[in-house]
Each structure stands twice: as C-alpha cells, then as structure tokens.
Amino acid sequence: MSYKSAWSNPAIELDPRNDGSMVRKAFIFEGFLNLGTLPLITHPRTILPYLLNHPNHINATSVFFARLFGIIVVAALTPGLWAAARNTRNGIESRSVMYKALGGAELILIPMLLNEVMKDGAYDAVLGYKTALIGVLSVTPPLLWRIWVMYIKPEMLGKYKEVKRE
Fold first, then answer.
1. Is pLDDT of 162 > 90?
2. How many domains does the chain have?
C-alpha cells in the first residue's frame, strides 16, 4: 500500500452531470465579496462610524477588533473559498467542510445581529439599527443557500472518480 500526501491531487474525472460549476461560481463570487472588508483592515477609523451606534466610542480596542475581523475574512475565509472552487480532488472534498464552517458561523452571527436589531439603537446597542438589519439581510440568503446545497442538493458540490495512472 502506498501513502499519499494530503497535498497531492490525484488525477480525477469529473461527473459531467455534477461538476459543481454552480457552487464553484458561488465560492468565487463570495470570495470577491469578502474583499469588501479590506477597508476594515486599512481604514477602520473611516469605516467604523458608519457601522457603530456610538461612533464617539471608537477607540484602539474597537479598531483592533475591526481589523481582526477583516483579517479573518480576507486572509482565512477568502483563500478557503477559492481553494474549494478548484476542480481538484481536494477542492471538491473541501466544499462541504467549507459550507459547514461558514454556515455554522452564520448560525451564530444571525442571532447576534438580530439582538442588535431588537435593541433598536438603544444605548447598549453596539451596531446601528440599519447596520444590524443589513447584516441579517446579507447573511441569511447565503446561509439558506448553503443549507439547500448541503442537505437538499448535495450533488451540486460536485462528484468525481479517481483515475488510475498507469
């Protein structure tokens, strides 16, 4: 028996009926949308007043956490999405893991944002009402898409068979 590296991508043949093209396009599109968080890394003091309920509370800590959030999105999530968009064995196999990870984060994020919406701009609200509502409205459709793909149409993730090299 020969062992394979996790980094190897043995030759595969895609299932022509389930090549994952729709999910691949969604991964690439979402990756590009994630780049919209770059200003949180580069210019957080310019962006935060539009997001926070009390812009006068912006301090070094809020700037740090805005940058941290932006870095997680740009440096961790985006490359993961783009790697899963590749039609390689590793890419296809990582799609469901990526969707489960993103969906799990969205399942936690949506109630947090709804909590901010319910505060309706009260003093203890961190985010402005519109910011929180836009957050809920922008995160819910991707979560529903992920659930639909993962549990109703998993063949959309793509299928392959390994091709034996001679």
1. no
2. 1
Question: First-to-last CA distance in the chain?
Answer: 16
| Assigned domain for 160 exists | no
Three-state SS at 26: helix
- Token pair belonging to 43: 């210019």
DSSP label of 72:
I
pLDDT band at 166 (very low <50, low <70, confident <90, very high): low
Distance CA 157, CA 87 (A): 10
Range of the domain at 99: 13-153
Read off the DSSP letter of residue 164.
Answer: P
Q: Would 23 be classed as within a structural domain? A: yes
Identify any residues that bridge with 160 across adjacent strands, giving them in sequence order. 14
Position of tokens 């399942």? 107
